[in-house]
Amino acid sequence: MKDILKAPFIVEMCETTANMYRQGWDERNGGNISYLLDEKEVAEYLDINKVIRTIPTGFDATKLAGKIFLVTGTGKYFKNVQKDPETNLGIVKISADGTTAELLWGYKDGGKFTSEFPAHMMSHIARLEQDPNHRVVAHSHPTYTIAMNTVCPADERDFTHKLWQSNTECVVVFPDGVGVLPCMVCGTEAIGIATAEKMKDHRIVVWTNHGIYGTGKDLDEAFGLIETVEKTAQIYMLSLGHAVNIIPDDVIRGLAELWNLKMMDGVLDD
Questions:
Q1: pLDDT confidence of 1, banded at 50, 70, 90?
Q2: Longest pairwise C-alpha distance within the chain
Q3: In the chain, what percentage of residues exceed pLDDT 90?
Q4: What would the DSSP string read from start to end of 184-250?
Q5: Rounded Cα gap, residues 33 and 90, in angstroms
Q6: Residue 142 and residue 136: Cα distance in Å, rounded?
Q7: Does the annotation count 116 as an active-site position?
């Protein structure tokens, strides 16, 4: 077997979590990531039939049965992942009946995956139905995104419009807009179901007073979505109440037409 600590998916996860921590998005044990792995690639580093222990999933995950995920651990700090991946990360395979996840590697201190595991797995299910190339769900607490969310209505069309009006990159990067959930109790099946419902139409979902979920075909794409929202939220907050120049709707439409993008409905005036 190859050295798993040199596996591209482990190296990528270490680099991404370290970068997200440096950005200030994942204070303390805030934030979590799950990464759908290729079984053949994992088999180069692990015996995928050797189960260390099982961990209850907390919901019916049969739609993901047999799939393997690299997931950050509950209570773990992103700043520590790079120096000790085997404690702060775990590789799990969803069991045939969907009630447990089989630990194949990691969580060596007896820990388990993030408390947001149901929200992650439900989001994977929703996004895979929309895009078979989907692989990553990343959750973090970006400062300006949360700040903008506190001063704007919890209305996803309004929130998306304000972002599109503040930075020309936005409609290009997320023409499908941003989903917004009201403030809910995190770590529950209920918020997982609500997030997954939004993920049917959006790759980004904001949790009011909490943070953001970004998804993608790889870690770079998920990170880039969050990064673009956060940068633009910073622009919005720095100019709050004083913006004179905003991007007109006809320019936003022009950008979408230039790149042949399908925009979220109901955001722009007819």
A1: confident
A2: 61
A3: 93
A4: --SSSHHHHHHHHHHHTT-SEEEETTTEEEEEESSHHHHHHHHHHHHHHHHHHHHTTTT------HH
A5: 11
A6: 18
A7: yes
Q: Are residues 125 and 22 in the same domain?
A: no
pLDDT in tens, 214-263: 999 999 999 999 999 999 999 999 998 788 999 999 999 999 999 999 99
Q: What is the pTM of this model?
A: 0.96
The catalytic position among 39, 86, 116, 221 is 116
CA dihedral 212, 224, 10, 15 (to 10 degrees): -100
Integer Cα distance of 210 and 139 in angstroms:
10
- CATH number of the domain encompassing residue 245: 3.40.225.10
Q: In sequence order, which residues have a C-beta less than 8 Å from that of residue 6 and are 6 or more positions away?
A: none
Of 52, 82, 115, which residue sits at a domain end? 115
Provide the number of structural domains found in the chain: 2
Task: Tell me the DSSP string of 61-74.
Answer: -GGGTT-EEEEEBT
Q: Which amino acid is at 63?
A: K
* Element at 89 (helix H, strand E): strand 89-94
CB 201 within 8 A of CB 264: yes
39 close to 92: Cβ distance less than 8 angstroms:
no
The amino acid that residue 20 corresponds to is M
Provide the b/e sequence for 6-37 (b: ≥16 CB within 10 Å): ebebbebbbebbbbbbebebbeebbbbbbbbb
